[in-house]
Request: fold
Amino acid sequence: MAATTDDTKRAIIAVLERRGALHLREIGDALGPEWRGPEKNVRLRQMARRMARGGLLSQPGRGMYALSPNYQMRGLNVRDWTEKAIAEFLISRGGVARTREIVGAVGERPAGAERNYDHKLVTTTLARSGRFTQEFGRGYWNLPTTERAQLPLPGWVAAREIERDWVDGGDFDSWEARREEFFDSVGTAFMAARGDLDIADVVGVAEVAAALGVMGQACPAARIKALEATRDDVMEDARTRGVTGAFEIARLVREWKAVEIGKQLYASFEMGNVALHLAAPVDLYRACGALFGVEPARLSRGDSAP
Reply:
């Protein structure tokens, strides 16, 4: 069977990966006798130029071609690029995301009622690539289990897996009890990995603060509880310093709120608060893993070993 254009592109990339920058004639020689001769040389030159325009190749000299520094992020064609972009987005989300989120992140235009080109391209690529599956039901797509094992495990995904795999009559009365135990173990791992580092220092990291903000918005009950705890702390501190005016206390609450609510939310997360674990974005595991010196994928699974 004759080689396709994509097959030839892959062969050119393989040659340049092995040997580095080459003259076009040397690339043709490496591809084999079927790529020698004036006619084939013209076709090879056209293909190499298209690959250069597409960001796969660079031209370090006249008639020379080499792999671009970011060639692995580029696609051989539109569908190949789309598959890579989908995979990158899924990696950023811990390996699982809703279809509409994927379309919104990968497509250039939002999907409308007419099911525009971007929407069709993304959904067709998801269905046909062979790399993506739907283990979490219709409306979700995910990377294979082996790939997700290397990524942080989002709390909501862990909960779905626990519910799916729970068997009545085991060590727990319900899958919810098993979920609570898991989140408690993850929170304990965060606490152990943090060690003597003050919570204020953790919350002071911009990425952690941003993640806690997302969690607080998604969990109004936890945020209200954190606000009440913050207000209590401020009032206690105010009483200690002899401040009694309502307006002054309100001002202090506003000043304290941004940092203190984050501290309260983080402390509640370490204590295994289910709602906060379900809402925790992948960025929280990555930021805290980097801060604590722990692999984020292991930390998200309750392992605090450095």
